[in-house]
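Give me the fold.
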Amino acid sequence: MVYVDGMQGIIKHPRTIQWLYVLITKYGNRSIMLVKGCLELLLVFINYKEDTNSHLVVKAVFSVDAKHGKTPWSGFMAILKEGTSNAESFLYSITLINRICVTLNLK
């Protein structure tokens, strides 16, 4: 299990998760390091408590995409469309989606 100081605070404030996803959707093509960092943080968040945190990430994704009138998961799909031009972001996106699917039994 990964332990990050303050993780309980993030769990109690879903706007933080929404903010990370907004950064991914806004800067996906322009700031590789920012997107990579956001994806890493979301992975750490999911690994902390897979059962509950995956649900929180899904709610955040749906909330942000609905607010902006986009298809759910469009931020991650944009990264996947880029393919291997940014291999690390691609790998982190795939890993994040897989972890969420396994937790939610969406095989």
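The mean pLDDT is 86.
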